[in-house]
Design brief:
Layout: H1 2-18, E1 20-24, E2 29-33, H2 36-42, E3 58-64, E4 70-75, E5 81-85, E6 94-98, E7 108-112, E8 125-128, E9 131-135, E10 139-144, E11 157-161, E12 174-176, E13 181-186, E14 221-226, E15 238-242, E16 247-253, E17 258-263, H3 269-272, H4 279-284, E18 288-293, E19 304-307, E20 312-315, E21 335-337, E22 343-348, E23 362-366, E24 381-385, E25 387-388, E26 391-392, E27 397-400, E28 419-424, E29 430-434, E30 440-445, H5 454-462, H6 480-484
Antiparallel strand pairs: 1-2, 3-30, 4-5, 5-6, 6-7, 8-9, 9-10, 10-11, 12-13, 13-14, 14-15, 16-17, 17-18, 18-21, 19-20, 22-23, 23-24, 24-27, 25-26, 28-29, 29-30
Length: 486
């Protein structure tokens, strides 16, 4: 009897040394999933890095060319990838991907999700405490992940319901702290809480804003929920912070145990107040605001905007501002970023694969502008903000470029890809999703970490002269019509 038991155990020990042997229920074939750190040693970037450029020493391989129009993504401890899709009909709004032969490419791609797709701003996908959390426009769900199973089989649990109708900027982005709390964004559908009933009919009349802005009762902020209680709504919980127009990029920073986000700044300064703001100012103002969000703080929307040239919070024209009046009673961002670039995800890097300077810093996916007219659109990159002593250190850097595939982006339709989501793999790889076709890249570092320095970054710094990365200079830089006719 003892011999039989030992003979049975011995082969299992051998298998565990070689890798975890799994039975994939969908394909009915045995697969071996190596530990992520072992896979990393055998992976190499694609020859052209999937069309992207990085600082020297980095490369990328394409996990899949098309998972479907993608929003945020998450990577499990075994390397499985989960993606939220931008679809507004039917069910099956999530995608799961698995690499079965350890070449870094997805071999299994399967749609799932027993819940309705209620709007095209469905966004979130996060893994937290062994659960897969994801959001539609109106509902936050979670499903238990089972070891070895790619697709969660339990019925989705409803954690939070937005009880108000669908509206613009309705993404529900999530972040989790270390005390069983879940933070959810409720963004506002307007630029400055406009009230056209208060605006006169003169051609250059200043659009007026509602004061106080009634949207702030239920929108324009972050609310704090339990990460496990079912069927919660805003009415059950406290508002964590207010004065935040539109947040899609949000993350909890474990280094200082604090919430961070990058806020979408408003549009139409020139349209709303042409006597005070030129078309150039409309293109370069206001900043996208990188924020350390504190409980109880008011960040000034819709009454203010942040000017990255003056590094000051300014009174909005809808509320008496003229481009010169400073407003000091609201909290400032920790860093002003280029106007209209559309920050749609952020990630604090915790891994050890990349050079030391990247650890604890923030990657930001800029989806790309739609309204820098009459100048070329801007953004369409993944940027990096170095941190030192818990604060941004220096300027933002271009980390990944080449998504657009063109030199001049007149409209968003000109861009081949639009970076959307970021996730860190268990081996420290950085995953990037995009929203047009659902292409996914896995970024690797294959250089010498000890020698990584300014020379590695130089070509990316030079890329800031490109039309879609340059901050236009008034009366000097070319308009779209001029660049198209070169």
């Amino acid at each position: 009897m003892h011999r039989i038991i030992l003979l049975f155990i011995f082969p299992l020990l051998i298998l565990n040394c070689q890798g975890e042997k799994k039975q994939e229920s969908d394909t009915k074939k045995e697969i071996v999933i190596k530990k992520p750190e072992k896979v990393m040693k055998t992976l190499k970037p694609d020859q052209n890095n999937g069309g992207l450029t990085f600082p020297d020493g980095f490369g990328a391989l394409v996990v899949t060319e098309s998972a479907g129009p993608s929003r945020h993504l998450a990577v499990n401890d075994n390397g499985d990838i989960y993606v939220k899709l931008k679809i507004d009909t039917g069910t099956n709004g999530n995608v799961a991907l698995r690499d079965t032969d350890n070449d870094g490419k997805a071999d299994i791609i399967e749609r799932f999700g027993d819940s309705p797709n209620d709007g095209s701003f469905a966004t979130e996908m996060r893994i937290h405490k062994g659960y897969l959390y994801y959001s539609s426009e109106l509902v936050v769900y979670r499903q238990k992940l089972i070891e070895g199973e790619l697709i969660p089989t339990s019925k989705p649990e409803v954690l939070m319901v937005d009880r108000y109708p669908l509206r613009w900027h309705n993404a529900k982005t999530l972040a989790f702290d270390n005390e069983d709390n879940m933070y959810v964004t409720f963004s506002a559908p307007t630029n400055a809480c406009e009230d056209l009933r208060l605006t006169s009919g003169e051609p250059d009349a200043i659009v007026k804003g509602e004061y106080p802005c009634s949207q702030l009762d239920i929108l324009g902020g972050v609310w704090k929920f339990s990460d496990s209680k079912l069927n919660q709504s805003q009415q059950d919980v406290e508002r964590y912070a207010t004065g935040l127009r539109s947040i899609v990029a949000m993350s909890w920073n474990q280094e200082d145990n604090s919430l961070y986000a990058v806020n979408h700044g408003r549009d139409y300064l020139h349209n709303h107040a042409p006597r005070y703001f030129s078309e150039w100012e409309d293109a370069v103002l206001p900043a996208e605001e990188f924020m350390n969000i504190k409980q109880g703080e008011d960040y000034g929307w819709p009454y203010t905007y942040y000017d990255p040239f003056k590094n000051k919070r300014m009174l909005a024209p809808e509320y008496g501002g003229d481009g010169k009046k400073v407003e000091t009673k609201y909290a400032d961002p920790i860093l002003g970023l280029p106007a209209h670039w559309a920050p749609n995800d952020m990630l604090f890097y915790k891994g050890n694969q990349f050079p030391e300077r990247y650890k604890k810093g923030a990657f930001i996916a800029f989806h790309g502008s739609t309204n820098r007219t009459p100048y070329p659109q801007g953004g369409y990159v993944v940027a990096f903000v170095p941190f030192k002593d818990g604060k941004p250190y220096g300027e933002y850097e271009i980390f990944a470029d080449g998504f657009a595939g063109v030199d001049i982006i007149e409209t968003k339709e000109d861009a081949k890809y639009r970076p959307m989501g970021l996730a860190e793999g268990p081996d420290g790889s950085l995953y990037i999703s995009e929203s047009n076709q659902g292409k996914i890249w896995r970024v690797l570092f294959t250089g010498n970490k000890d020698e990584f320095g300014a020379e590695n970054l130089s070509k990316m710094e030079e890329s800031k002269t490109k039309s879609y990365l340059k901050i236009p200079v008034e009366n000097k830089d070319k308009l779209v019509s001029e660049t198209k006719n070169q």
